[in-house]
Structures are given as structure tokens and as C-alpha cells.
Write a structure and sequence with these properties.
Radius of gyration: 20 Å
Order of helices and strands: HEHEHEEHEHEHEHEEHH
Number of strands: 9
């Protein structure tokens, strides 16, 4: 009977803290991301995707530390360091085998942004200088569409400094991130215009390759519970993303 009680006690702990049931990387994971307001903030109130990931980890019984770094470094860390998860990461065929894909977080829409009157039809913009975040997967999408003069920047703010300073003819990025960056810079209403989305993708929470099927199942259960009780939608609505 004593052995049975011990077993039941251990089982209770595993039910209360599902991460303890894992032998995979989730138990020791850390998060890497970049400053991408309004989705992710490295200071002040958390962005929408931070809230989603924080709640996801809480339900999974995890309390990972988060490191904010330039996006290109975040990509490097998630492909070179063990037990490292990254978000928001666009899932593309060329990345498929570089990461363990944990949970889809958010549908992204990528647009061109230019000073009003200088945004031309897409075909006419292909020989223009287009600023975008260094290491962003959208550079591949732009090249496939025929854009060749890409100007890479270290941060979203630098993307828009290039645009506002005349070092680029247009910027390319996620629609809500672009809007937030211009809003912080107090750009005049109506000074800029955006194209219809040129591409739509899904941003994921992804892990280094030492995450396994048990880790995926853990996060998927947490995500399913957030969707079932409406908390995922409430977070997106709070940030006007749904």
C-alpha cells in the first residue's frame, strides 16, 4: 500500500505540473524574441503575443526566462542552443527542418508602406529600395515576387528610419507592426499608405530541434485549453488583433 500511495502522489504531481512528465527540452526551455511592438515589447506592458505565450507556458507548468535580442540573433540562438524556443517565427518550407514547431500563434499580413503618393502598383515597385528586418523570412518572399533591392535593418525602428530618412523607397513588414512603429514616431495621419497584403503567413512558437513529440503535445494541450475557454480570443481582442 505504501508503494501505491507513493505512486499516486507522484502521479498527482505530474497532473499538477505537466512539464514534470516530460523528459524533453520543454522542462529546461528558455525563450528568445525581439522587440516587435505591438506584438512583443521588451519594456512596459506586454504585447499580445507575449501574453499568449506567457499564458501558454503557465498552463503547461513552465516558467521560462525570456531574452530580448536582435531578430537575427534570436534565429541563431534557436538553431544553435539547446532547449531554446523562439517567437513569433514565420513557418516556411525552407525552415521546416530547422525548428520543432510547437503552436501557431497569429496570422500575419505583410504589406508595403510608402509616403503617400509614392506607393506604385506592385510591379512598378520591384525596382525600388525596400527596407525590411534583417533575417526576416519575408526577404525570400520578396525575392520570389521579383524584388531585388532589399535594404536590411537591425530593428523595426531602423526599418522606418531608413524609410523616413530617404534611404529606402518603401518598407515591407507585418501590417500591425508597421502601424505601431509609425504611431510611436507620431507620423502624421495620412502621410503614409500601405499596399494590400502581398503575403499572409502564420507566426509560431517554435523550438530548437531537441524539443520532441512530448513537448509538442504539452504545448498543444495548453493551447487547446486556451481556445476552449476563450482566453486566446480575449487576449487578441484586448490588443485589437481579432
Amino acid at each position: 500500500m505504501m508503494g501505491r500511495r507513493n505512486w499516486l502522489g507522484a502521479g498527482g504531481l505530474l497532473l499538477a505540473f505537466p512539464a514534470l512528465a516530460l523528459a524533453g527540452a520543454a522542462r529546461a526551455m528558455r525563450l528568445v524574441t525581439a522587440h516587435l511592438p505591438p506584438l512583443v515589447h521588451d519594456n512596459g506592458p506586454p504585447g499580445a503575443l507575449q501574453e499568449l505565450v506567457d499564458e501558454l507556458c503557465r498552463r503547461a507548468g513552465l516558467r521560462p526566462a525570456t531574452q530580448f535580442v536582435p531578430w537575427r540573433r534570436a534565429l541563431f540562438l534557436a538553431t544553435s542552443m539547446p532547449a531554446t524556443a523562439i517567437y513569433p517565427l514565420t513557418r516556411l518550407p525552407e525552415r521546416e527542418k530547422q525548428y520543432c514547431w510547437l503552436v501557431p500563434l497569429y496570422e500575419e499580413n505583410y504589406v508595403l508602406l510608402a509616403v503617400r503618393g509614392q506607393l506604385l502598383p506592385v510591379d512598378a515597385m520591384k525596382n525600388k529600395r525596400i527596407a525590411l528586418l534583417r533575417g526576416a523570412a519575408q526577404g525570400v518572399a520578396l525575392r520570389e515576387l521579383g524584388f531585388s533591392r532589399l535594404v536590411e535593418a537591425a530593428s523595426i525602428d531602423e526599418v522606418h528610419r531608413f524609410l523616413l530618412g530617404g534611404m529606402a523607397d518603401a518598407a515591407f513588414g507585418e501590417r500591425r507592426i508597421i502601424a505601431a512603429s509609425l504611431e510611436r514616431r507620431r507620423a502624421a495621419d495620412g502621410q503614409f499608405e500601405t499596399s494590400p497584403p502581398l503575403s499572409s503567413t502564420t507566426a509560431w512558437l517554435a523550438g530548437s530541434l531537441d524539443f520532441d513529440e512530448r513537448d509538442i503535445a504539452l504545448f498543444q494541450r495548453a493551447w487547446d485549453s486556451m481556445r476552449a475557454d476563450g482566453s486566446q480570443r480575449r487576449i487578441l481582442l484586448k490588443h485589437k488583433l481579432s
